TrEMBL record:
<keyword id="KW-0472">Membrane</keyword>
<dbReference type="InterPro" id="IPR052175">
    <property type="entry name" value="ComplexI-like_HydComp"/>
</dbReference>
<feature type="domain" description="NADH:quinone oxidoreductase/Mrp antiporter transmembrane">
    <location>
        <begin position="122"/>
        <end position="337"/>
    </location>
</feature>
<feature type="transmembrane region" description="Helical">
    <location>
        <begin position="72"/>
        <end position="93"/>
    </location>
</feature>
<protein>
    <submittedName>
        <fullName>NADH/ubiquinone/plastoquinone (Complex I)</fullName>
    </submittedName>
</protein>
<feature type="transmembrane region" description="Helical">
    <location>
        <begin position="6"/>
        <end position="26"/>
    </location>
</feature>
<feature type="transmembrane region" description="Helical">
    <location>
        <begin position="228"/>
        <end position="247"/>
    </location>
</feature>
<comment type="function">
    <text>NDH-1 shuttles electrons from NADH, via FMN and iron-sulfur (Fe-S) centers, to quinones in the respiratory chain. The immediate electron acceptor for the enzyme in this species is believed to be ubiquinone. Couples the redox reaction to proton translocation (for every two electrons transferred, four hydrogen ions are translocated across the cytoplasmic membrane), and thus conserves the redox energy in a proton gradient.</text>
</comment>
<dbReference type="GO" id="GO:0016491">
    <property type="term" value="F:oxidoreductase activity"/>
</dbReference>
<dbReference type="InterPro" id="IPR001750">
    <property type="entry name" value="ND/Mrp_TM"/>
</dbReference>
<feature type="transmembrane region" description="Helical">
    <location>
        <begin position="537"/>
        <end position="557"/>
    </location>
</feature>
<dbReference type="InterPro" id="IPR003918">
    <property type="entry name" value="NADH_UbQ_OxRdtase"/>
</dbReference>
<feature type="transmembrane region" description="Helical">
    <location>
        <begin position="259"/>
        <end position="276"/>
    </location>
</feature>
<dbReference type="GO" id="GO:0005886">
    <property type="term" value="C:plasma membrane"/>
</dbReference>
<feature type="transmembrane region" description="Helical">
    <location>
        <begin position="157"/>
        <end position="182"/>
    </location>
</feature>
<feature type="transmembrane region" description="Helical">
    <location>
        <begin position="421"/>
        <end position="438"/>
    </location>
</feature>
<feature type="transmembrane region" description="Helical">
    <location>
        <begin position="458"/>
        <end position="476"/>
    </location>
</feature>
Length: 559
């Protein structure tokens, strides 16, 4: 491919979905947008697959000398993002076919797509921030699309954390760029401690790391299925992309060790709360929190690596985890539109097998991308001594969580949207095969097939399946989760106005239902009204943070 063609292709990556999204301002053109959204990510996919080597372009008149381009890291993210946006748009075309607001949804989807794809090709701090902000704010419209009270509450929590994250990210970038004296050098040189803290806050909110995760389990159940797929598969990965772009690798051993601990806590916390959910999409949201914790461990290893070569290997392992999780989780989210309980015979089993394949990859069974990703982390020989056994425990925990998910989906009945089966099947196929197109994944297959590695990947499956089946029996089929989605936010709001939970009612046989006993023990605290009050509390905090950041920037500019 010629340099000129490559340059135009890179420009089209964010420009095409952005221009198409602006057509949503014209009511008469909105009917065309759902179909055009399917085509919009194709230039990005072509750029990721066809452009060889690094390419860059400067736009002096845009955003104080904007720079777009494609390098090794950006290519991996762009390939993932483009594939998932294609699948999500394809699914949305059929899923919302009878929705009178589908044109508005498609316009917002295109704007979020432009921002998400733009982060992969941004080569300067301001361009990255602009794309990040466009993606985040456009996604609010996807979360509140159906306009129900639950969606609006989820949207309020989401937008408050978005504002807080954008504020932290912008302030951190300003400090980092000022210290480095170059538009993109913060990723290559030491940055001030305050900038590091602000960047970590901004990227941590987007990645959904505990305790910054509360928007994820609220937004995913509220958004339509195709929006949930790209939210979890693509958009939360921008937190990792930003960290790789702007943090020095290696060079932050203390921060790296802290991130490893935070990632491990997120991995276990996501499972512990996720298994108590009854909405499959909320459960998958907590699974994403858990899996992003594992990706954070890979980033922490890169930050704390003793030399650049090992840091590069750790980054490759984190990227492999990113590809693996992105494709698998998108397939599972698109699968929540299925109704296996209403299918008969072979159709039911094919749907459950299709859901089981990406679930097996997340668990890390042999010959799956998950097994290769975890083997890549173990082969690094970095990190604390407990890391290898922890990865095995996390596999068992993931198996527990996904057995619970499959149990919920197995009993799901209803009417499937016509046309949505094909994009879901394509996502399952991609989740099984796409990762192997990346050379490091194919090269790591051999190390994941050694006898000790296979044994190490099989016993967590047995433990997780046994625990998952037992827990599904114990929890029963009640539609109300034991812990409300949003957990910390809901409990925090409930703590302000705590009231004693009602006692569990005995059954006719004089026994208290086992599930109600657990519910009473957990004292779930906040209900939806309390959640809304909590969101307003966060809003006050965000305004206060904005004032502090304004003072920070003023002092910076005056120095």
């Amino acid at each position: 491919m010629s340099a000129g063609t490559a340059t135009w292709l890179v420009l089209l990556v964010p420009l095409l979905p952005l221009l198409l999204g602006t057509l949503g301002a014209f009511r008469g053109l909105r009917a065309w947008l759902p179909a055009l959204a399917v085509l919009a990510p194709l230039p990005a996919l072509a750029a990721a697959l066809l452009i060889e080597g690094d390419v860059g372009v400067r736009i002096p008149w845009l955003l104080l000398d904007s720079r777009l381009g494609l390098d090794g890291v950006g290519r991996v993210f762009l390939a993932l993002f483009a594939c998932l946006w294609f699948l999500g748009s394809w699914h949305a075309f059929f899923y919302l076919r009878l929705d009178p607001r589908r044109g508005r949804f498609a316009a917002l989807l295109l704007l979020a797509m432009a921002g998400n794809l733009g982060t992969a090709v941004a080569q300067d701090a301001l361009s990255f921030y602009a794309a990040f902000a466009l993606m985040s704010f456009a996604s609010y419209g996807l979360v509140v699309h159906d306009g129900t009270p639950g969606s609006l509450r989820a949207g309020r929590v989401y937008i408050v954390l978005v504002v807080l994250g954008e504020l932290a990210l912008f302030s951190g970038l300003v400090l980092a760029v000022a210290a480095a004296g170059a538009p993109f050098e913060p990723g290559r040189a030491a940055i001030p401690g305050l900038a590091l803290a602000l960047l970590s806050l901004g990227f941590g909110i987007k990645a959904g790391l505990v305790p910054l995760h509360v928007w994820l389990p609220l937004a995913h159940p509220a958004a339509p299925v195709p929006a949930s797929a790209v939210l979890s598969g693509a958009m939360i990965k921008v937190g990792l992309l930003g960290a790789l772009r702007f943090l020095p690798l290696p060079g932050l051993p203390g921060a790296g060790e802290g991130l490893i601990l935070l990632g491990a806590a997120s991995a276990l916390y996501g499972v512990a709360v996720g298994v108590l959910q009854t909405n499959p999409k909320a459960l998958l949201a907590y699974s994403s929190i858990s899996q992003m914790g594992l990706i954070a461990i890979g980033l922490g290893l890169a930050l704390s690596a003793p030399d650049p070569a090992l840091a590069g290997s750790a980054v490759a392992a984190a990227l492999l985890f990113t590809l693996h999780h992105g494709f698998a989780k998108a397939a599972l989210f698109l699968g929540t539109a299925l109704a296996p309980g209403s299918a008969a015979g072979l159709g039911r089993w094919l749907r459950m097998i299709g859901l089981g394949l990406p679930a097996a990859a997340l668990i890390g069974l042999p010959l799956t991308s998950g097994a290769v990703a975890k083997a890549a982390v173990k082969d690094l020989g970095l990190g604390p001594a407990w890391l290898d056994p922890f990865l095995s425990v996390s596999s068992a925990a993931t198996a527990l969580l996904l057995v619970r998910f499959l149990a919920l989906m197995g009993g799901r009945s209803g009417e499937e949207k016509p046309g949505t089966l094909a994009p879901w099947l394509a996502s399952v196929l991609l989740s099984a095969l796409a990762v192997w197109a990346w050379a490091p994944a194919a090269e790591g297959l051999a190390s994941s097939l050694t006898a000790p590695t296979i044994v190490d990947s099989l016993w967590p499956l047995g433990v997780g399946v046994a625990l998952g089946l037992g827990l599904s029996w114990f929890l029963g089929s009640s539609p109300t989760p034991l812990v409300p989605a949003g957990d910390l936010l809901a409990f925090g709001a409930g703590a302000a106005g705590w009231r004693r939970p009602p006692a569990a009612a005995p059954t006719a046989a004089g026994r208290t239902p086992r599930r109600d006993l657990l519910r009473t023990a957990l004292a779930r605290g906040a209900e939806l009204a309390a959640l809304e009050r909590g969101a307003h509390i966060w809003a006050v905090g965000a305004v206060a943070s904005a004032a502090l950041a304004a003072l920070l920037l003023a002092s910076l500019l005056s120095s």
